[in-house]
Amino acid sequence: MSALNRREFIAASAATLAISSAGKLVAESPKADASGQNKTWYSSMLRCGQVNFNEQDPLTMNADAWMDYWASLKVNAVMLNGGGIMAFYPTKVPYHHRSEFLGSRDLFGDMAAAARKRDIRVVARMDCNFAYEEAFQAHPEWFQYNADGSPRKHAECPWLYATCMFGTYFTEQMPAIYREMNQSHAPDGFYTNGWPSTGPLEVCHCLNCQKIYKEKTGGVPPEGTDAGSAIYRRYYDVSMDRIAEIWSLWEKTAKEGNPNSVYVGNLGGGIDTVKNVKRLSEVAAWFNADNQGRRGNTPIWECAQQGRVARSVMDGRTVTNVVGSYSNSSINWRHSAKAPAEATMWAAQAAASGMAPWYHWLGGQPQDNRWRENGRVFFDWLAANQTHFRNRRSLANLAVLYPQSTIAFYGSDGTRTRKLNRTTIDQTDYLQGLYAALLEGRFLFDFVHQENLDAATLKPYRALLLPNAAYLRDSECEAIRDYVKSGGSVLATFETSRYNEWGVQREDFGLSDLFGVSVAGEVIGPFGNSYMRIDQPHPILEGFTGTTTLPGPEFQSTHHSFKK
Ligand SMILES: [Zn+2]
Description:
It contains 18 helices and 22 strands. The protein is of the alpha/beta class and about 575 residues long.
């Protein structure tokens, strides 16, 4: 590290640099080599583009002009709307709704041909989450139902019905559409918008789900998603298994047409994930993060953080991140360009954290074209410097445990928040706080998913940081002990290891022996306006001069007594 100057050091803390033994920047990942991933067309992909069609686009969309634009960005692949909710090619699959304005045009085919003429790969963007009334009338068993028996509809478009992943829409109808497109257009891959996502699970009460839950969980579908309920826990596992089964089926279906084809689902969510990204990575050849930009109080570093989450489970395989070129703030202006600095900052973080940026515009007839030049400038730079973005290894010497079970299930009321003393604590706060401190300290760190705590994964790191990893398996506690025995250091905060992966409280910390501490009382708080008095000097108090008190902790233990 001493060989790096400050500027290089700052760059290294944002990016995973690739440095060979000779100190030269080199290409490609050894892990990817070992898994054969470099043989796939998408393993070397560094730039992608997407224009999302609207229903009227078949009337006017100019395929050559659009592909001239994407070629000017030197993209390796484009995502183009194929079908699902709405077909943009002349489909013959029953109940596969065609765009009303398609006429005799094959818009997907025109755009795909224009892309291929320019050596750009084509991924068909599909929608599997909703279908039209005609499908609902013919196949009511394809759809989700509420507990009262009513079909579930799209919140903004009530003419669309939500499909159920446990039904044959996912195992028969979507594969029929993929097969038709394999025959007619042979895309290089399929991508599903909106599915599976990494967000909370939805509980469906269709007849099919009732049957599955009776057989697999021994109960009825749970009312809500409460990790405290035994039925929910079985439901979570059944749901994750089904997602993996569908992902694998669609991957297999994609490859029927072309062995080099691929299926990629919609993931993302930054650090806030409920679905098990480790489990998803076991079936995913490519992780796409639909994480398009900042909104509300999203931290400015969130895109690179997304890269760390994805890399913690993908072991060198392809990761992409959708970058909204339109204004996707907490009020969406879908047809206005985002400020150039904002979009560039997001795309740069995607590239720096090991993801390929996927630049995204909505609609084939933009009135606002300011986003185009902005994308061209950044993608030009990325293409000119692409050697430096084929990463060989991470330089990080610190590992931060990505505490997915805690983030997904912390709190007993199923809301994934802890409500104590009428204050709601966000379950991602603990990781976010540590993350901010590490960035400000210019430390080099990677995320390690809690289910990846094996000796080989932890070997490069001198310390493992556990930001309130409250929910840990016994086997994960054991792996942390082994890491310390082999010379690693551990820093843990708050309730780390107090519960098993589902939130069942242990009598003592699972890592009580390692920490040399035991539970003395229950957690109470959060408290404001509490203080700690400095009684005597100590090295950790260095720098705290001019005060005899410091702010007290938010959470305390019942075994203490407090002076008001
Ligand atoms: Zn269902």
